[in-house]
Design a protein that fits this description.
single chain, 182 residues, alpha+beta, Peroxidase, domain 1, 2 domains, four-stranded mixed β-sheet, 8 helices, 63% helix, 14% strand, ATP synthase subunit delta, ATP_synth_OSCP/delta_N_sf, cell membrane, hydrogen ion transport, CF(1)
């Protein structure tokens, strides 16, 4: 079983358990916290990946970091994951959990690459369009700025992309002209 499949299955089990226990929102908060801590701390990720470090030591490190700030179900989940020798997939599991949670709640992420920072009006318009076209309940905008675009923006939602950038239009025109000349 690949690591991503295992992470996805562990995440699904945690979602099912937390839904059954009416603790889904708390689990989401915990998973976001754990994901952020591991993402920002390469040493912690290396410890979780290292097969030489004992399972007890890995769990005590996680307990020391998260012990008082996480739900009891999350603590039990961390203990289970570590005791099964699956601490290496904890980061992937948190990402899978968040992805599955967002799917259940109808939350989509819209990645916007723009030449300049988006105004609040731009963001509101993008959110309205994405909600209407995708049927999402909530839209999270992740904004990146790239001066290479010259102007406009590129919007990605899932596997769909809309290019309204000047550089994209110039490239398209360049291709059309090259095909017409040949």
């Amino acid at each position: 079983m690949s690591e991503n499949k295992a992470a996805s299955r562990y995440a699904k089990s945690l979602i099912d358990l937390s839904t059954e226990q009416n603790a889904l929102e708390e689990m989401k908060i915990d998973m976001v916290l754990i994901e952020q801590v591991i993402d920002q701390n390469s040493e912690l990720e290396a410890i979780l990946q290292n097969p030489v470090i004992t399972l007890d030591k890995k769990y005590s490190i996680l307990e020391g970091i998260f012990g008082k700030s996480i739900h009891a179900i999350t603590k039990a989940y961390l203990k289970l994951l570590v005791n099964k020798g699956r601490a290496a997939i904890l980061f992937d599991t948190t990402k899978a959990f968040i992805r599955q949670y967002n799917t259940i709640k109808g939350i989509v992420t819209a990645e916007v690459l723009s030449a300049t920072a988006l105004t609040d009006a731009n963001k509101a318009e993008i959110i309205a369009v994405v909600k209407r076209e995708i049927g999402a309940n909530e839209v999270i905008i992740k904004e990146k700025i790239s001066e290479k675009l010259i102007g406009g923006f590129i919007l990605k939602v899932g596997d769909k992309q809309f290019d309204a950038s000047i550089s994209g239009s110039l490239n398209k025109l360049k291709k059309e002209l090259a095909q017409g000349v040949v």
